[in-house]
Amino acid sequence: MMNRKTLWFFMLPGLLLYTGLFVYPAVSGLFYSFTNWDGVSTSYDFVGISNYKDSFDSIVFRKAFFNNVKFMLTVVIIQTIVSLVLALILAKNTRTRVFLRALYFFPAILSSVSVGLIWSFIYDPSLGLLNTALTSGGLEQFTASWTGDANIALYAIAFVQIWAHAGQMMIVFIAGLHAIPEELMEAARIDGATRFQIFRKVTWPLLAPSATIVVSYTTIQSFKAFDLIFVMTDGGPNYATEILTTYIYHLAFSNYSFGLASAGSMIFLVLLGLLTMAQFKALRRGGANG
Amino acid sequence: MKNIKMKSSFVLALTLLLTVVLSACGNSSDSSADGKVTISFLHWRGEDTQAFQKIIDQFEAKNPNIKVDMQTLTSDQYQSTAQAKLTDGSVGDVFASFPGAQYAALSKAGLYTDLTNESFLKNYNADLIDVGAKDGKQWAVPYQLVYNQPIYNTEIFKKYNLTPPTDWDGFLKLCATLKQNGIIPIAFAGADIGPGQLMNTMVMNNEPSEDIFTKVEAGQAKLTDEFWVKTLTQFKELNDNGYFQDNSLGTKDAAAGALFIQGKAAMLASGSYQLAQNAKQNPELKQALLAPITVSADQAKYEGVHTSTFMLGVNSRSKHQAEAKKFLEFLSQPDVASQYANETGQNVTLKDITYDSPELKIAGDWADKKTIFQPRFTILNSENQKAVTNSIQSVLGGATPEQAAQDAQAIVDQQIK
């Protein structure tokens, strides 16, 4: 057994890096959230909690928050269903399963920026692949300004987020499905249960831990989304896709309002913390039930 | 003994770690043992690095004791990280900045060295470097000159016997003729640069004032005032009549450019900076610049919009200000600036420049016209800037001009303290 000093010796470089790169910025962010620092000047004034008050009062902040919630709910619900369905199909011993699993997983290995750029071209209303395909297929009435229409832009990006990550979550479900003992399925079949009954009474309850992981991961990932929206719409049109992370970025790096952006980041951190705690609670419950 | 070894290893590991971390933050501009000074030149024009490197080589040959280390960031990265690098003085003895919010922030932080008495200022067109002056002193010299008005395809205009109109009715008639002939009148990148570019010429005569947005930011004028509601109404008129391509709000810069380059659109709502790029992609293209005049001919005060940008300054925290100024002086020589202009396809703010490409001459011809500094860049708060351009997107998305103006004003009101 290693003694304490040896343990510290091996931990210290990591701890130092973690403190320097994560703890220090977080603490200094909290500090700057009470100032009017512009991110450039060497001097600043303390402004108390006014940055927090301004954030909650801000029309754009409120829009960004509601967009965040809409985006998160859309992605979590649809991505969980899609990845579950894909897993149920591809967990079976079909000849094409390896190829299809690789195909669905493929978007996960691309960077978000590349995905955003590719889909920006696909969504382009004049020259893009999607509208061109719809028009060629006689479905002209379904063409749209996918990222230009304020009513659908957020959902168009949510679709891309789902496309990019559903394959990843499918793997989690497949692992969960493989962990279900075959005897239970066999017993259910012998008892004359239908496919749906087997899914509802056997598969789904035993998949609960996997589902909880998928929902938790997707919730946190979609809540702190940034790259896709930044690349595809930068929050537009007319704030329709502005979310908290893009709002904070704009405040800090376009408007040089570092104090206000730090307050926004702190609020975001608390929201994310609350969400994570709720997820862990659900995870524990899911694990216990499962 | 074991403990001593352990402690030594620990100290060694820590030293190595700190060395690695601190070396990453090292100062790149310094004096070497042979007395050579290295200055850092920080900017975002990655596409100009070859042209700049040639100029730097010439500078170094004439000034053997000065080495210029050029570093470029993408323009997004430049917005987000340049200020931190400049603040600690680690890079950017000579640095570039955007006019507007970035110049205002860097200036407020005292990062510019006063250039007021530098002899090379006389090489610049005095009217075009105002934007780098504050409180009677010249802090930065904008190097590039852009005319932010639509580009038009002269062959298409010729084909339909059209000339740049001098009033709003004429502009609408021109658009109608193009549309009737199956040509998209204006390729408009509504998803990114479009609103921020076209708003400049659309507003320049509706409120022919250089400080209207300064007044808006100070609470002395409102976006709900006639000048902006009228501008939004005219945007709506162009959109409702189908003078922009379909679904223009979803169109990005590259796609709008493609419509123009392919001859599907007669005008491109961007600026002179796009001329060289267009010519590169379609050498047959014949282009010129025109600004929509939104009032009657007798009320029009301005013919177009200009922006002096790529503002070069000397970092006040630089250890080598004299050498940095020497490099700035070199860049300001007419022959060097001409070389830069011709190799990069960018017009410059200096006098006595020889432009050798048709695209540069097109913009160069505008030097004698009555232009106003880009109104959008007079909005120093980027939240306000976004509120203004978003109100255009809101109108194109179906809102009434009055409502869009009111929503934008509500955001501006929150920024006024």
Give an overview of the whole structure:
The complex is a heterodimer of chains A (290) and B (417). With 290 residues, chain A is mainly alpha-helical. In chain A, 72% of the residues lie in helices and 0% in strands. In chain A, helix 1 (4-32) crosses helix 12. Chain A is globular, with a radius of gyration of 23 Å. The mean pLDDT of chain A is 91. Chain B is α/β, with parallel strands linked by helices. In chain B, the strands form three sheets. In chain B, strands 1, 2, 3, 6, 11, 12 and 13 form a seven-stranded mixed beta sheet that branches. In chain B, strands 8-9-7-10 form a four-stranded mixed beta sheet. In chain B, helix 9 (226-240) packs across helix 16 (401-415). The termini of chain B are far apart. Residues 1-28 of chain B have low confidence and may be disordered. In chain B, a hairpin with a 2-residue loop joins strand 4 and strand 5. Chain B folds into three domains: 1-28; 31-145 and 308-361, D-Maltodextrin-Binding Protein, domain 2; 150-290 and 381-416, D-Maltodextrin-Binding Protein, domain 2. At the A-B interface, helix 1 and helix 11 of A face helix 1, helix 3, helix 4, helix 10 and helix 15 of B.
Question: How would you briefly describe this protein structure?
Answer:
Chain B: Residues 1-33 form the signal peptide. The complex is a heterodimer of chains A (290) and B (417). Chain A has 290 residues and is mostly helical.
Radius of gyration of chain B: 24 Å
> Residue share in helices of chain A?
over 70%
Structural class of chain B: alpha/beta
Low-confidence stretches of chain A are: none
Principal-axis shape of chain B equals globular
Number of strands of chain B: 13
Pattern of helices and strands of chain B:
HEHEHEHEEEEHHEHHHHEHEEHHEHEHH
CA-based shape of chain A: globular
CATH class of the largest domain in chain B: Alpha Beta
Strand content of chain A: under 5%
The quaternary organization reads as heterodimer
CATH superfamily of the largest domain in chain B: Periplasmic binding protein-like II
